[in-house]
Amino acid sequence: MAKRIEVSDLNIFYGNFKAVEGVNVSIEPRSITALIGPSGCGKSTFLRSLNRMHEVLPGARVEGKVVMDGQDLYGSDVDPVNVRRQIGMVFQRPNPFPTMSIYDNVIAGNRLNNNRMKKSDTDDLVEKSLKGANLWNEVKDRLDRPGSSLSGGQQQRLCIARAIAVEPDVLLMDEPCSALDPISTLAIEDLMAELKERFTIVIVTHNMQQAARVSEQTGFFNLNGVGQPGRLIEFNPTEKIFSNPDQKATEDYISGRFG
Amino acid sequence: MTATKAPSEPPQQRAVRRPGDRIFAGSAQGSGIFILLVLAGVAAFLISEAIPALTAPAEDIPGGEGLASYIGPLVVGTLLGAVLALLIATPLAVGIALYITYYAPRRIAATMGYVIDLLAAIPSVVYGFWGLAVMAPTLVPFHLWAADNLGFIPFFAGPASTSGRTMFTVGLVLAVMILPIISAIAREVFSQAPALHREAALALGATRWEMIKMAVLPYGRSGVIAGAMLGLGRALGETMAVAIVLSGGAGATVNLISNSSPSTIASNIALRFPEATGLGVNTLIASGLVLFLITLLVNMLARWVVNRRADFSGAN
User: Are residues A209 and A256 in contact, defined by beta-carbon separation less than 8 angstroms?
Assistant: First the structure.
């Protein structure tokens, strides 16, 4: 069930430091939204605020609203644990649990939600999720091996399988290909094109070609200087951003004149 | 490499070795060999001094019934006290370590870590007097209660000691003594659980406890086992505290709360060595050899447990 996310007037703080300021954006369901911008501009922080993962750091807080299909993610009675069960995340470095087998990695999230699952049901779920992550054929004969025995690209697809096994509404990806070689990157990009039929996908990337290849919408983040908060400078259809952006800063960035 | 070279002449390549590297490698290797020599020396001493007792006729051994029936009860007593201490201290230490690393506010965590480390600095003779003067009398009511209500378990068969100077009290005192060792090591490994995997768990919607179960405990498992074995080593060899607290009998009983508990090997050596002569000394050294072997076995067992699932340790 893909869902729409509406962000309004979002400020994100770490203690007294304002990391991101004044973000207003609407993220469409069943599409890929790419976030680009120079390092330290707050795009990862913004991404992590969408499933409240930035709260892992002490002192993190937000002002403003993040609403997913009418549900305020920062409402006073909302448990961040439940938010994260609806909004999955894939990280920059592949992080399968090293102490678990491939099989157990895939269903790690489901085990949290529901301890009692029939063996045949979990078998089906593992197969479906690994097929959904285009990994099934490569690992079906060694599901009991540790996840860390796979190559980097396979590990990242295992993490995607783990994230989609719980059927989240939204999938956040924080530079999912930056630690991978071009072949593995292509495999992940193909996978994203399939996954957007079922999920809302938000991806942070430093690779502008990747943003241009995979996304429908692109947001450009920038900051005025060190110590200043990051801002969403422009948010437009990807085609427009890369051909005829509204803002001079966007054009400078994508044409390589700075950043 | 040129293709014209004859294949029968492999190029003689020797890596350049700098003096600093050589000195460091030599001294590191020297230290490694030194510890092996010390170990071999101790083992050789124990064996050579124990041989007279091993070969002596049974009636010459103190007690008059042979070496096995002299050392046997001591082995039971040693294992009983140490295992009891380990069973009490390990869960407690893991809990303390988790609280300090993942639950406590930073300032409380630092203070608590410091206080726990201080426990390790208290001399064992102080623990012994504390056990004798405070723990033993305090625990007498528990002894009586256990004898009445848990008597069907062999460990609590009674009759309950009215002084409290029993194996149960010894186990508790030893538990407090090994707590800082285990918790310090557990704390260290828990705090090193990779943020990568902790975040993976949280992003799947794990609560803090679930995150600890998924990413911290499995990662720290081998460290906790190693810490527990260090603690067990100290508990097995602890001499002063046991000698002061325990008023032991001689029977090989697993009863924890009576006055008939056997002494431990280490405290028995400490109590009898000053007055031992001739074959008595050899007998005591033979019991020391047994303690040495027990410790060796325990360590090998721990190694085996840790290595059994090395593929899944996360070290690769």
Answer: no
